[in-house]
Amino acid sequence: MPTSAPDPRRAALTSALLPLLRASCPSDAGGYGGSVEVRLPDTEVQELGGTDLLRASLRAAARQLGWKIETYAMTGTQHGTMLGVSDRRPVPEPFTAVVAADMARRTRAAVDRVGRPGSPVPQPSPVCDPHLPTAEFRAACAAADLRTHDPAL
After folding, report:
1. What span, in angstroms and rounded, lies between the C-alpha atoms of 9 and 15?
2. Which one of 19, 34, 99, 127 has the lowest number of neighbouring Cβ atoms within 10 Å?
3. Cβ within 8 Å of residue 58, ≥6 positions away
4. How is the chain split among helix, strand and coil, in percent rounded to 5?
5. pTM reported for the whole predicted model
């Protein structure tokens, strides 16, 4: 029978993810407009505690930042498991231009990564590199030291 006790791994990972989520917000946007997507091999997700734990930790961290959230998790894709969280709060007027510009920059970077037929393979922008959030997510998981909090150990 599952226990109703809080999972210490979730609490540790939630704390470790807060800086990653804060950093995903555009500078000068008052903490609005953040989003993170990570892509991990399915086996790594299981080693870290599973999709449910990772998604719940992302949700909890986003809520601590006051985000109105949208999360998703897709397992078994050609990229392994994809997990994401986005801030869906209405953006106050003083920050709308900054958030809109950041969204346009991210969209342009995604289109450039896909490329166009006959065009050279684009190099990712360091700011919009899709591997950066995954590397930072792995670092947050390591900082949370999930294995020491694993109730199965």
Report:
1. 10
2. 127
3. 17, 21, 36, 71, 83, 84, 85
4. 50, 15, 35
5. 0.78
Question: What are the φ and ψ backbone dihedral angles of 92, each rounded to 5 degrees?
Answer: -60, 150
The whole-angstrom separation of Cα 50 and Cα 48 is 6
pLDDT in tens, the chain (153 residues): 455 567 888 999 999 999 999 999 999 999 999 998 888 999 999 998 999 999 999 999 999 999 999 999 999 888 789 999 999 999 999 999 999 999 898 888 777 766 666 655 555 444 445 456 788 888 888 888 766 555 555
Whether the CB-CB separation of 124 and 73 falls below 8 Å is answered with: no
- Full DSSP string of 21-34: HHHHSPTTSTT-S-
Q: Which position has the token pair 């999930």?
A: 146
Instruction: State how far the Cα of 105 lies from the Cα of 82, in Å rounded to an integer.
Output: 21
Give the pLDDT score at 121. Answer: 54
In 10 A of CB 141, how many CB atoms? 24
Name the token pair of 54.
């990772």
How many angstroms separate the CA atoms of 2 and 127, rounded? 42
Structure tokens at 96: 């709308």
